[in-house]
Amino acid sequence: MSTADPRALDPTGPALRALLAEVTEYVAHVIERMPTAPASDTGGVAELLSDPAVRRPPPDRGRPLAELLEVVDRVGTKGLNTASPGYLAFIPGSGVLAAALADLVSDVLNRYTGVAFAAPGLVALEADVLAWLARLFALPETTAGLVTTGASLATLSALITARWAKLGEDFLDGTIYVTDQTHRSVAKAARLCGFPDRAIHGVPVDADLRMEPAGLRAAIAADRVAGKRPCCVVASAGTINTGVVDPLPELADIAAAEGLWLHVDAAYGGFFQLTERGRQRLRGIERADSLVLDAHKGLFLPFGTGCLLVREGDLLREAHSGPHAEYLQDIVATELPSFADYGPELTRDTRGLRLWLPLHLHGVDTFRAALDEKLDLAEYAYRELSADPALEVFGPPELSTVAFRCRAGDEVTMEVVARVNAEQRVFMSSTRVDDRYTGRICVLNHRTTRERIEYTVEAIRRHTATTLSPLEGELE
Ligand SMILES: *Cc1c(COP(=O)(O)O)cnc(C)c1O
Protein backbone atom coordinates (compact mmCIF):
# COMPACT_ATOMS: atom_id res chain seq x y z
CA MET A 1 0.00 0.00 0.00
CA SER A 2 1.33 3.40 -0.94
CA THR A 3 1.37 6.13 1.69
CA ALA A 4 1.00 8.86 -0.95
CA ASP A 5 -2.16 10.98 -0.84
CA PRO A 6 -4.45 10.41 -3.84
CA ARG A 7 -6.08 13.82 -3.21
CA ALA A 8 -2.82 15.40 -4.41
CA LEU A 9 -4.03 14.73 -7.96
CA ASP A 10 -6.61 17.47 -7.53
CA PRO A 11 -4.86 20.43 -5.90
CA THR A 12 -6.98 23.31 -4.61
CA GLY A 13 -6.47 26.67 -2.90
CA PRO A 14 -2.91 28.02 -2.61
CA ALA A 15 -1.33 24.80 -3.99
CA LEU A 16 -3.47 25.05 -7.12
CA ARG A 17 -2.70 28.73 -7.63
CA ALA A 18 1.01 28.19 -7.07
CA LEU A 19 1.14 25.59 -9.86
CA LEU A 20 -0.74 27.87 -12.25
CA ALA A 21 1.49 30.83 -11.36
CA GLU A 22 4.64 28.83 -12.04
CA VAL A 23 3.41 27.80 -15.46
CA THR A 24 2.29 31.37 -16.20
CA GLU A 25 5.76 32.66 -15.35
CA TYR A 26 7.48 30.06 -17.51
CA VAL A 27 5.17 30.67 -20.47
CA ALA A 28 5.72 34.44 -20.28
CA HIS A 29 9.48 33.85 -20.21
CA VAL A 30 9.31 31.62 -23.31
CA ILE A 31 7.27 34.19 -25.24
CA GLU A 32 9.42 37.13 -24.24
CA ARG A 33 12.70 35.52 -25.21
CA MET A 34 11.30 34.36 -28.59
CA PRO A 35 12.65 37.26 -30.70
CA THR A 36 16.23 36.58 -29.59
CA ALA A 37 16.05 32.79 -29.32
CA PRO A 38 17.98 30.91 -32.04
CA ALA A 39 15.86 29.80 -34.99
CA SER A 40 17.53 26.41 -34.72
CA ASP A 41 19.75 24.78 -32.14
CA THR A 42 20.95 21.33 -33.01
CA GLY A 43 24.15 21.26 -30.97
CA GLY A 44 24.60 19.09 -27.90
CA VAL A 45 21.62 16.87 -28.63
CA ALA A 46 23.50 13.60 -28.03
CA GLU A 47 24.66 14.77 -24.58
CA LEU A 48 21.18 15.93 -23.70
CA LEU A 49 19.58 12.66 -24.77
CA SER A 50 22.07 10.60 -22.79
CA ASP A 51 21.70 12.69 -19.62
CA PRO A 52 20.15 10.44 -16.96
CA ALA A 53 18.70 13.52 -15.22
CA VAL A 54 16.59 14.06 -18.36
CA ARG A 55 15.68 10.52 -19.24
CA ARG A 56 14.54 8.65 -16.22
CA PRO A 57 11.46 6.69 -15.32
CA PRO A 58 8.79 8.48 -13.28
CA PRO A 59 9.67 8.45 -9.58
CA ASP A 60 7.47 6.98 -6.85
CA ARG A 61 7.53 10.32 -5.09
CA GLY A 62 6.76 13.41 -7.17
CA ARG A 63 9.29 16.17 -7.85
CA PRO A 64 8.76 19.96 -7.73
CA LEU A 65 7.21 21.56 -10.82
CA ALA A 66 10.12 24.02 -11.14
CA GLU A 67 12.57 21.13 -11.59
CA LEU A 68 10.36 19.54 -14.20
CA LEU A 69 9.92 22.79 -16.13
CA GLU A 70 13.69 23.06 -16.19
CA VAL A 71 13.91 19.68 -17.90
CA VAL A 72 11.17 20.68 -20.32
CA ASP A 73 13.03 23.88 -21.15
CA ARG A 74 16.29 22.01 -21.80
CA VAL A 75 14.68 19.51 -24.15
CA GLY A 76 12.12 21.92 -25.59
CA THR A 77 14.70 24.33 -26.94
CA LYS A 78 16.63 21.78 -29.02
CA GLY A 79 16.09 21.22 -32.73
CA LEU A 80 14.20 23.63 -34.98
CA ASN A 81 12.53 26.55 -33.25
CA THR A 82 9.28 26.34 -35.18
CA ALA A 83 7.73 29.06 -33.01
CA SER A 84 10.53 31.56 -33.74
CA PRO A 85 10.00 34.61 -35.98
CA GLY A 86 13.06 33.39 -37.90
CA TYR A 87 11.58 30.03 -38.77
CA LEU A 88 10.97 30.15 -42.53
CA ALA A 89 11.29 26.45 -43.37
CA PHE A 90 8.75 24.02 -44.85
CA ILE A 91 5.38 25.59 -43.97
CA PRO A 92 5.79 27.40 -40.66
CA GLY A 93 3.31 27.35 -37.85
CA SER A 94 3.74 29.48 -34.81
CA GLY A 95 1.23 29.02 -31.99
CA VAL A 96 -0.72 32.03 -30.75
CA LEU A 97 -1.05 32.16 -26.98
CA ALA A 98 -4.85 32.37 -27.03
CA ALA A 99 -5.03 28.83 -28.42
CA ALA A 100 -2.84 27.55 -25.59
CA LEU A 101 -5.14 29.27 -23.10
CA ALA A 102 -8.10 27.60 -24.79
CA ASP A 103 -6.36 24.23 -24.48
CA LEU A 104 -5.77 24.75 -20.80
CA VAL A 105 -9.38 25.69 -20.20
CA SER A 106 -10.84 22.90 -22.32
CA ASP A 107 -8.52 20.29 -20.81
CA VAL A 108 -9.66 21.35 -17.35
CA LEU A 109 -13.32 21.31 -18.35
CA ASN A 110 -12.55 17.99 -20.03
CA ARG A 111 -16.00 17.53 -21.58
CA TYR A 112 -16.63 14.86 -24.15
CA THR A 113 -17.12 16.28 -27.64
CA GLY A 114 -17.37 13.02 -29.61
CA VAL A 115 -21.16 13.05 -29.34
CA ALA A 116 -23.18 16.25 -29.29
CA PHE A 117 -25.49 15.13 -26.50
CA ALA A 118 -22.58 14.93 -24.03
CA ALA A 119 -21.33 18.49 -24.54
CA PRO A 120 -23.92 20.37 -26.60
CA GLY A 121 -22.54 23.82 -25.81
CA LEU A 122 -18.94 23.09 -26.69
CA VAL A 123 -19.99 21.12 -29.77
CA ALA A 124 -22.09 24.11 -30.85
CA LEU A 125 -19.10 26.46 -30.57
CA GLU A 126 -17.02 24.10 -32.69
CA ALA A 127 -19.84 23.71 -35.21
CA ASP A 128 -20.14 27.52 -35.36
CA VAL A 129 -16.45 27.87 -36.24
CA LEU A 130 -16.86 25.25 -38.97
CA ALA A 131 -19.96 26.99 -40.32
CA TRP A 132 -18.03 30.28 -40.39
CA LEU A 133 -15.29 28.55 -42.37
CA ALA A 134 -17.80 27.09 -44.82
CA ARG A 135 -19.19 30.60 -45.40
CA LEU A 136 -15.67 31.99 -45.81
CA PHE A 137 -15.22 29.62 -48.74
CA ALA A 138 -18.76 30.21 -50.04
CA LEU A 139 -19.65 26.56 -49.54
CA PRO A 140 -23.37 25.69 -49.29
CA GLU A 141 -25.48 25.02 -46.18
CA THR A 142 -25.10 21.27 -46.78
CA THR A 143 -21.42 21.50 -45.84
CA ALA A 144 -20.16 19.56 -42.84
CA GLY A 145 -16.78 19.91 -41.25
CA LEU A 146 -14.44 18.44 -38.77
CA VAL A 147 -11.54 19.82 -36.78
CA THR A 148 -8.76 17.26 -37.12
CA THR A 149 -5.23 17.07 -35.79
CA GLY A 150 -3.89 18.27 -39.14
CA ALA A 151 -4.29 18.21 -42.89
CA SER A 152 -3.07 14.62 -43.19
CA LEU A 153 -5.99 13.26 -41.19
CA ALA A 154 -8.38 15.67 -42.91
CA THR A 155 -7.12 14.41 -46.28
CA LEU A 156 -7.60 10.81 -45.19
CA SER A 157 -11.24 11.52 -44.32
CA ALA A 158 -11.70 13.46 -47.57
CA LEU A 159 -10.41 10.57 -49.69
CA ILE A 160 -12.46 8.04 -47.72
CA THR A 161 -15.51 10.17 -48.52
CA ALA A 162 -14.60 10.59 -52.20
CA ARG A 163 -14.05 6.85 -52.46
CA TRP A 164 -17.37 6.12 -50.75
CA ALA A 165 -19.27 8.62 -52.90
CA LYS A 166 -17.75 7.83 -56.28
CA LEU A 167 -16.64 4.18 -56.16
CA GLY A 168 -18.49 2.31 -53.42
CA GLU A 169 -16.96 -0.72 -51.73
CA ASP A 170 -15.12 -2.11 -54.76
CA PHE A 171 -12.73 0.71 -55.44
CA LEU A 172 -9.47 -0.92 -56.52
CA ASP A 173 -9.83 0.26 -60.12
CA GLY A 174 -10.38 3.88 -59.01
CA THR A 175 -7.88 6.60 -59.89
CA ILE A 176 -6.78 9.82 -58.18
CA TYR A 177 -5.15 12.69 -60.07
CA VAL A 178 -2.23 14.62 -58.58
CA THR A 179 0.96 16.31 -59.82
CA ASP A 180 4.59 15.99 -58.78
CA GLN A 181 4.00 19.14 -56.71
CA THR A 182 1.16 17.58 -54.67
CA HIS A 183 1.93 17.11 -50.98
CA ARG A 184 2.86 13.54 -50.17
CA SER A 185 0.13 13.36 -47.52
CA VAL A 186 -2.30 12.75 -50.41
CA ALA A 187 -0.61 9.58 -51.68
CA LYS A 188 -0.18 8.46 -48.08
CA ALA A 189 -3.87 9.01 -47.34
CA ALA A 190 -4.79 7.11 -50.51
CA ARG A 191 -2.69 4.16 -49.40
CA LEU A 192 -4.09 4.29 -45.85
CA CYS A 193 -7.63 4.18 -47.13
CA GLY A 194 -6.89 1.14 -49.20
CA PHE A 195 -6.05 2.35 -52.69
CA PRO A 196 -3.21 0.53 -54.41
CA ASP A 197 -0.31 2.85 -55.28
CA ARG A 198 -1.18 2.47 -58.96
CA ALA A 199 -4.37 4.45 -58.26
CA ILE A 200 -2.29 7.62 -58.07
CA HIS A 201 -2.02 9.16 -61.51
CA GLY A 202 0.51 11.96 -62.02
CA VAL A 203 -0.68 14.80 -64.27
CA PRO A 204 1.93 17.06 -65.94
CA VAL A 205 2.50 20.62 -64.69
CA ASP A 206 3.06 23.80 -66.69
CA ALA A 207 6.16 26.02 -66.53
CA ASP A 208 4.86 27.58 -63.29
CA LEU A 209 4.42 24.10 -61.76
CA ARG A 210 0.59 24.16 -61.87
CA MET A 211 -1.49 21.19 -62.93
CA GLU A 212 -2.18 21.31 -66.66
CA PRO A 213 -5.92 21.08 -67.37
CA ALA A 214 -5.29 19.53 -70.80
CA GLY A 215 -3.03 16.95 -69.16
CA LEU A 216 -5.75 16.12 -66.65
CA ARG A 217 -8.34 15.66 -69.40
CA ALA A 218 -5.99 13.38 -71.32
CA ALA A 219 -5.18 11.32 -68.22
CA ILE A 220 -8.86 10.80 -67.41
CA ALA A 221 -9.65 9.79 -71.02
CA ALA A 222 -6.75 7.33 -71.14
CA ASP A 223 -7.79 5.78 -67.82
CA ARG A 224 -11.37 5.33 -69.00
CA VAL A 225 -10.13 3.56 -72.13
CA ALA A 226 -8.00 1.31 -69.91
CA GLY A 227 -11.11 0.35 -67.92
CA LYS A 228 -10.26 2.37 -64.82
CA ARG A 229 -12.76 4.41 -62.84
CA PRO A 230 -11.55 7.99 -62.44
CA CYS A 231 -12.55 9.12 -58.96
CA CYS A 232 -10.90 12.25 -57.64
CA VAL A 233 -8.88 15.28 -58.75
CA VAL A 234 -6.58 16.71 -56.10
CA ALA A 235 -5.86 20.40 -56.64
CA SER A 236 -3.31 22.26 -54.54
CA ALA A 237 -4.16 25.71 -53.21
CA GLY A 238 -0.61 26.54 -52.31
CA THR A 239 2.00 23.90 -53.11
CA ILE A 240 4.66 23.17 -50.57
CA ASN A 241 7.57 23.69 -53.00
CA THR A 242 6.86 27.10 -54.50
CA GLY A 243 3.47 28.09 -53.08
CA VAL A 244 1.57 28.17 -56.38
CA VAL A 245 -2.16 27.57 -56.75
CA ASP A 246 -3.42 25.08 -59.33
CA PRO A 247 -5.93 26.50 -61.87
CA LEU A 248 -8.95 25.80 -59.68
CA PRO A 249 -11.74 27.03 -62.04
CA GLU A 250 -10.48 24.91 -64.95
CA LEU A 251 -9.94 21.85 -62.77
CA ALA A 252 -13.41 22.30 -61.26
CA ASP A 253 -14.91 22.43 -64.79
CA ILE A 254 -13.20 19.18 -65.71
CA ALA A 255 -14.18 17.46 -62.46
CA ALA A 256 -17.81 18.54 -62.99
CA ALA A 257 -17.89 17.46 -66.64
CA GLU A 258 -16.34 14.10 -65.83
CA GLY A 259 -18.28 13.44 -62.62
CA LEU A 260 -15.15 13.39 -60.46
CA TRP A 261 -14.69 14.51 -56.87
CA LEU A 262 -12.70 17.73 -56.55
CA HIS A 263 -10.50 17.73 -53.49
CA VAL A 264 -8.60 20.94 -52.74
CA ASP A 265 -5.50 20.75 -50.58
CA ALA A 266 -5.50 24.22 -49.04
CA ALA A 267 -3.51 23.11 -45.98
CA TYR A 268 -0.99 25.85 -46.60
CA GLY A 269 -2.83 28.45 -48.65
CA GLY A 270 -6.42 28.22 -47.46
CA PHE A 271 -6.50 30.88 -44.77
CA PHE A 272 -5.22 33.52 -47.18
CA GLN A 273 -8.87 33.51 -48.24
CA LEU A 274 -9.29 35.98 -45.37
CA THR A 275 -7.35 38.56 -47.41
CA GLU A 276 -8.34 40.35 -50.59
CA ARG A 277 -5.28 39.13 -52.50
CA GLY A 278 -5.73 35.58 -51.25
CA ARG A 279 -9.38 35.56 -52.26
CA GLN A 280 -8.42 36.49 -55.82
CA ARG A 281 -5.67 33.90 -56.00
CA LEU A 282 -7.87 31.13 -54.58
CA ARG A 283 -10.74 31.85 -56.98
CA GLY A 284 -12.57 28.60 -57.76
CA ILE A 285 -11.95 27.09 -54.32
CA GLU A 286 -15.69 27.43 -53.62
CA ARG A 287 -16.29 24.59 -56.08
CA ALA A 288 -14.42 22.02 -53.99
CA ASP A 289 -16.22 18.84 -52.93
CA SER A 290 -13.77 18.63 -50.06
CA LEU A 291 -11.28 21.12 -48.74
CA VAL A 292 -8.55 20.79 -46.13
CA LEU A 293 -6.98 23.64 -44.18
CA ASP A 294 -4.25 23.72 -41.58
CA ALA A 295 -5.13 26.19 -38.85
CA HIS A 296 -1.73 25.31 -37.38
CA LYS A 297 -0.25 27.04 -40.43
CA GLY A 298 -2.43 29.85 -41.75
CA LEU A 299 -4.21 30.75 -38.51
CA PHE A 300 -0.96 30.62 -36.51
CA LEU A 301 -2.44 28.09 -34.06
CA PRO A 302 -0.40 25.42 -32.27
CA PHE A 303 0.36 22.15 -34.05
CA GLY A 304 -2.46 19.65 -34.03
CA THR A 305 -5.15 21.82 -35.64
CA GLY A 306 -6.42 20.99 -39.13
CA CYS A 307 -9.84 21.38 -40.69
CA LEU A 308 -11.89 19.44 -43.19
CA LEU A 309 -14.92 20.80 -45.04
CA VAL A 310 -17.10 18.56 -47.21
CA ARG A 311 -19.70 20.13 -49.49
CA GLU A 312 -22.20 17.26 -49.09
CA GLY A 313 -21.88 16.78 -45.36
CA ASP A 314 -24.10 13.70 -45.41
CA LEU A 315 -21.51 11.89 -47.49
CA LEU A 316 -18.83 12.60 -44.89
CA ARG A 317 -21.07 11.19 -42.16
CA GLU A 318 -22.15 8.14 -44.15
CA ALA A 319 -18.54 7.34 -45.02
CA HIS A 320 -17.48 7.53 -41.37
CA SER A 321 -20.32 6.37 -39.15
CA GLY A 322 -19.52 2.90 -37.99
CA PRO A 323 -21.94 0.08 -37.29
CA HIS A 324 -24.46 0.41 -34.45
CA ALA A 325 -23.12 -0.35 -30.94
CA GLU A 326 -25.37 -1.32 -28.01
CA TYR A 327 -23.34 0.53 -25.40
CA LEU A 328 -24.07 3.78 -27.19
CA GLN A 329 -27.83 3.40 -26.73
CA ASP A 330 -28.05 6.27 -24.21
CA ILE A 331 -26.88 8.75 -26.84
CA VAL A 332 -29.71 11.09 -27.76
CA ALA A 333 -29.77 12.49 -31.27
CA THR A 334 -29.57 16.31 -31.44
CA GLU A 335 -29.58 18.93 -34.15
CA LEU A 336 -25.86 19.35 -33.60
CA PRO A 337 -23.27 17.17 -35.31
CA SER A 338 -21.79 14.30 -33.33
CA PHE A 339 -18.19 14.59 -34.47
CA ALA A 340 -17.51 10.90 -33.84
CA ASP A 341 -19.79 10.20 -36.82
CA TYR A 342 -17.78 12.51 -39.09
CA GLY A 343 -14.28 11.19 -38.56
CA PRO A 344 -12.25 8.18 -37.45
CA GLU A 345 -12.09 9.13 -33.75
CA LEU A 346 -14.63 8.44 -31.01
CA THR A 347 -13.14 10.15 -27.95
CA ARG A 348 -11.53 13.45 -28.87
CA ASP A 349 -10.32 16.62 -27.18
CA THR A 350 -12.30 19.86 -27.37
CA ARG A 351 -10.42 20.95 -30.45
CA GLY A 352 -12.95 23.60 -31.42
CA LEU A 353 -12.11 25.87 -28.52
CA ARG A 354 -8.56 26.44 -29.71
CA LEU A 355 -10.02 27.97 -32.88
CA TRP A 356 -12.98 29.68 -31.25
CA LEU A 357 -11.11 31.48 -28.47
CA PRO A 358 -8.36 33.12 -30.60
CA LEU A 359 -10.86 34.16 -33.28
CA HIS A 360 -13.23 35.71 -30.76
CA LEU A 361 -10.53 37.21 -28.55
CA HIS A 362 -8.54 38.90 -31.31
CA GLY A 363 -11.23 39.26 -33.97
CA VAL A 364 -10.97 38.11 -37.58
CA ASP A 365 -9.44 41.44 -38.69
CA THR A 366 -6.34 40.77 -36.63
CA PHE A 367 -5.76 37.47 -38.44
CA ARG A 368 -6.51 39.15 -41.77
CA ALA A 369 -3.91 41.83 -41.04
CA ALA A 370 -1.33 39.24 -40.03
CA LEU A 371 -1.88 37.27 -43.25
CA ASP A 372 -1.68 40.45 -45.32
CA GLU A 373 1.60 41.23 -43.63
CA LYS A 374 2.95 37.79 -44.63
CA LEU A 375 1.97 38.40 -48.26
CA ASP A 376 3.75 41.77 -48.15
CA LEU A 377 6.88 40.23 -46.65
CA ALA A 378 7.02 37.52 -49.32
CA GLU A 379 6.59 40.16 -52.05
CA TYR A 380 9.36 42.20 -50.47
CA ALA A 381 11.69 39.16 -50.30
CA TYR A 382 10.90 38.32 -53.92
CA ARG A 383 11.67 41.88 -55.11
CA GLU A 384 14.93 42.08 -53.20
CA LEU A 385 16.19 38.63 -54.14
CA SER A 386 15.30 38.97 -57.82
CA ALA A 387 17.22 42.24 -57.94
CA ASP A 388 20.38 40.20 -57.35
CA PRO A 389 21.77 39.00 -60.72
CA ALA A 390 23.46 36.04 -59.00
CA LEU A 391 20.06 34.62 -58.04
CA GLU A 392 17.23 33.04 -59.98
CA VAL A 393 13.92 33.47 -58.13
CA PHE A 394 10.56 31.75 -58.70
CA GLY A 395 7.69 34.18 -58.74
CA PRO A 396 6.25 36.65 -58.14
CA PRO A 397 4.84 34.75 -55.17
CA GLU A 398 1.17 33.86 -55.27
CA LEU A 399 1.16 33.28 -51.54
CA SER A 400 3.99 33.62 -49.06
CA THR A 401 6.67 31.27 -50.43
CA VAL A 402 9.75 32.46 -52.29
CA ALA A 403 11.96 29.79 -53.85
CA PHE A 404 15.37 30.68 -55.23
CA ARG A 405 18.56 29.25 -56.69
CA CYS A 406 22.03 30.61 -57.19
CA ARG A 407 22.75 30.80 -60.90
CA ALA A 408 26.22 29.42 -60.19
CA GLY A 409 24.76 25.97 -59.44
CA ASP A 410 23.38 23.59 -56.85
CA GLU A 411 26.51 23.44 -54.69
CA VAL A 412 26.48 27.20 -54.26
CA THR A 413 22.78 27.32 -53.36
CA MET A 414 23.27 24.49 -50.89
CA GLU A 415 26.21 26.30 -49.31
CA VAL A 416 24.29 29.57 -49.06
CA VAL A 417 21.32 27.91 -47.31
CA ALA A 418 23.72 26.17 -44.91
CA ARG A 419 25.63 29.38 -44.13
CA VAL A 420 22.51 31.46 -43.56
CA ASN A 421 21.05 28.77 -41.29
CA ALA A 422 24.32 28.53 -39.37
CA GLU A 423 23.86 32.14 -38.20
CA GLN A 424 20.76 30.81 -36.37
CA ARG A 425 18.69 33.97 -36.82
CA VAL A 426 16.59 32.30 -39.48
CA PHE A 427 16.06 28.74 -40.60
CA MET A 428 15.21 27.99 -44.24
CA SER A 429 14.60 24.66 -45.95
CA SER A 430 15.25 23.44 -49.45
CA THR A 431 13.62 21.29 -52.06
CA ARG A 432 14.28 20.06 -55.57
CA VAL A 433 12.54 21.65 -58.53
CA ASP A 434 13.33 20.37 -62.06
CA ASP A 435 15.81 18.14 -60.26
CA ARG A 436 17.80 21.14 -59.06
CA TYR A 437 18.56 22.11 -55.48
CA THR A 438 16.28 25.02 -54.57
CA GLY A 439 16.29 27.12 -51.43
CA ARG A 440 12.98 28.39 -50.16
CA ILE A 441 11.62 30.71 -47.55
CA CYS A 442 8.02 30.55 -46.43
CA VAL A 443 6.68 33.41 -44.33
CA LEU A 444 3.82 32.19 -42.17
CA ASN A 445 4.57 32.96 -38.56
CA HIS A 446 2.65 35.69 -36.76
CA ARG A 447 5.91 36.77 -35.13
CA THR A 448 7.86 37.29 -38.36
CA THR A 449 8.38 40.99 -39.02
CA ARG A 450 9.86 43.13 -41.77
CA GLU A 451 13.15 43.42 -39.87
CA ARG A 452 13.65 39.64 -39.89
CA ILE A 453 12.96 39.36 -43.60
CA GLU A 454 15.32 42.28 -44.33
CA TYR A 455 17.97 40.35 -42.46
CA THR A 456 17.12 37.13 -44.39
CA VAL A 457 17.43 38.80 -47.77
CA GLU A 458 20.67 40.49 -46.76
CA ALA A 459 22.10 37.21 -45.45
CA ILE A 460 21.20 35.29 -48.63
CA ARG A 461 22.78 37.96 -50.82
CA ARG A 462 25.84 38.29 -48.62
CA HIS A 463 26.50 34.55 -48.49
CA THR A 464 25.89 34.21 -52.22
CA ALA A 465 28.56 36.84 -52.84
CA THR A 466 31.08 35.36 -50.42
CA THR A 467 30.49 31.79 -51.57
CA LEU A 468 31.17 32.88 -55.15
CA SER A 469 34.34 34.81 -54.28
CA PRO A 470 35.61 33.64 -50.90
CA LEU A 471 38.56 36.02 -50.81
CA GLU A 472 36.43 39.09 -51.37
CA GLY A 473 34.21 38.00 -48.55
CA GLU A 474 37.13 37.72 -46.14
CA LEU A 475 38.44 41.16 -47.03
CA GLU A 476 35.12 42.88 -46.47
C1 LIG B 1 1.39 20.77 -44.27
C2 LIG B 1 0.72 20.30 -45.50
C3 LIG B 1 0.04 19.08 -45.55
C4 LIG B 1 0.08 18.09 -44.41
O1 LIG B 1 -0.53 18.62 -43.31
P1 LIG B 1 -0.24 18.12 -41.80
O2 LIG B 1 -0.96 19.14 -41.00
O3 LIG B 1 1.25 18.17 -41.62
O4 LIG B 1 -0.78 16.78 -41.65
C5 LIG B 1 -0.63 18.76 -46.71
N1 LIG B 1 -0.61 19.58 -47.77
C6 LIG B 1 0.05 20.76 -47.77
C7 LIG B 1 0.03 21.62 -48.99
C8 LIG B 1 0.73 21.15 -46.63
O5 LIG B 1 1.38 22.32 -46.62
What does this 3D model show about the protein?
The protein has two domains: 102-362, Aspartate Aminotransferase, domain 2 (3-Layer(aba) Sandwich); 365-475, Aspartate Aminotransferase, domain 1 (Alpha-Beta Complex). It is 43% helix and 13% strand. It is built from 17 helices and 13 strands. The strands form three sheets. A seven-stranded mixed sheet has the order 3-9-8-7-6-4-5, with helices on both faces. It has a four-stranded antiparallel sheet with strand order 10-11-13-12. Strands 1-2 form a two-stranded antiparallel sheet. β6 (229-236), α9 (248-258) and β7 form a beta-alpha-beta unit. α8 (213-225) packs parallel to α9. It is globular, with a radius of gyration of 24 Å. The model has no long low-confidence stretch (mean pLDDT 96). The protein binds pyridoxal-5'-phosphate (PLP).
Which terms would index this structure?
four-stranded antiparallel sheet; alpha/beta; 17 helices; Aspartate Aminotransferase, domain 1; seven-stranded mixed sheet; 476 residues; 13 strands; binds pyridoxal-5'-phosphate; Aspartate Aminotransferase, domain 2
Q: What are the SSEs and their pairings?
A:
Blueprint: H1 13-33, E1 40-41, H2 45-49, H3 65-76, E2 79-80, H4 97-109, H5 120-136, E3 144-148, H6 151-166, E4 174-178, H7 184-192, E5 200-202, H8 213-225, E6 229-236, H9 248-258, E7 261-266, H10 276-281, E8 290-294, H11 295-298, E9 306-310, H12 313-320, H13 353-362, H14 364-386, E10 391-393, E11 401-406, H15 410-422, E12 429-433, E13 436-442, H16 450-468, H17 470-475
Helix pairs in contact: 4-13, 6-7, 6-12, 8-9, 14-16, 15-16
This protein binds pyridoxal-5'-phosphate (PLP).
